[in-house]
Amino acid sequence: WDVHHGNGTQDIFWDDPSVLYCSTHQMPLYPGTGAASETGAGNIVNAPLAPQTGSEVFRDAFLSRILPALDSFAPDLIIISAGFDAHHRDPLAEINLTEGDFDWATGQLMQRAGRHSDNRLVSLLEGGYDLQGLAFSVAAHVERLMKG
Questions:
Q1: What pLDDT does 148 receive?
Q2: Which helix (H) or strand (E) element contains residue 69?
Q3: pLDDT in tens, 74-131
Q4: Per the domain annotation, does 78 fall within a domain?
Q5: Which of 54, 66, 111, 138 would suit a FRET pair with 60, their CA atoms being 20 to 30 Å apart?
Q6: CB within 8 Å of 29: residues ≥ 6 apart
Q7: How are beta strands 21-26 and 44-49 bridged, if at all?
Q8: pLDDT of 64-87, one tens digit each?
Q9: DSSP state of 117
């Protein structure tokens, strides 16, 4: 859920149906990739978010696009590219998420990890350029992970 599309990750797995890559990201924004029509070998799910969309649209993208794709794919492992630069305090983005949104998304992915991958979930810290927003968001994410 980084505010920027993971174009490199998408490119690596474009033709690999053994990997599902899902992305929520602001569009338009650098790098300019990640249109919903970019689907690779049917294993790429992009849910681009327009500037100023906020929590409701982010959560709807998860509920309508990302989570159904995860349930259909049933991964053995979930890896989160956990970028917190979509936080409303971040100066580089305009999606306006809160730490509550990151807590919620973490919980949703934990549920899928429990259902499909024997709770195997890895979280990798990516972006976040407002230190207070980053700290609050990471804390919400890690607290949710620790609750199990």
A1: 80
A2: helix 67-73
A3: 999 999 999 999 999 999 889 999 999 999 999 999 999 999 999 999 999 998 999 9
A4: yes
A5: 138
A6: 3, 4, 5, 51, 93
A7: parallel
A8: 999 999 999 999 999 999 999 999
A9: S
Q: Enter the pTM of the model.
A: 0.95
The encoded tokens of residue 127 equal 């972006």
Contacts of 23 (CB under 8 A, 6+ apart): 1, 2, 5, 6, 10, 34, 45, 46, 47
The secondary structure of residue 51, as a DSSP letter, is T
Domain that holds residue 23: 7-147
Backbone CA torsion sign across 55, 7, 72, 119: negative
Q: Shortest CA distance to 17 belongs to which of 63, 75, 78?
A: 75
How do strand 121-125 and strand 78-82 relate by DSSP bridges? Answer: parallel
CA angle 117, 3, 82 (to 5 degrees): 35
Q: How many domains does the chain have?
A: 1
In a domain, 34, yes or no: yes
The CA-CA-CA angle for residues 121, 125, 126, to 5°, reads 125
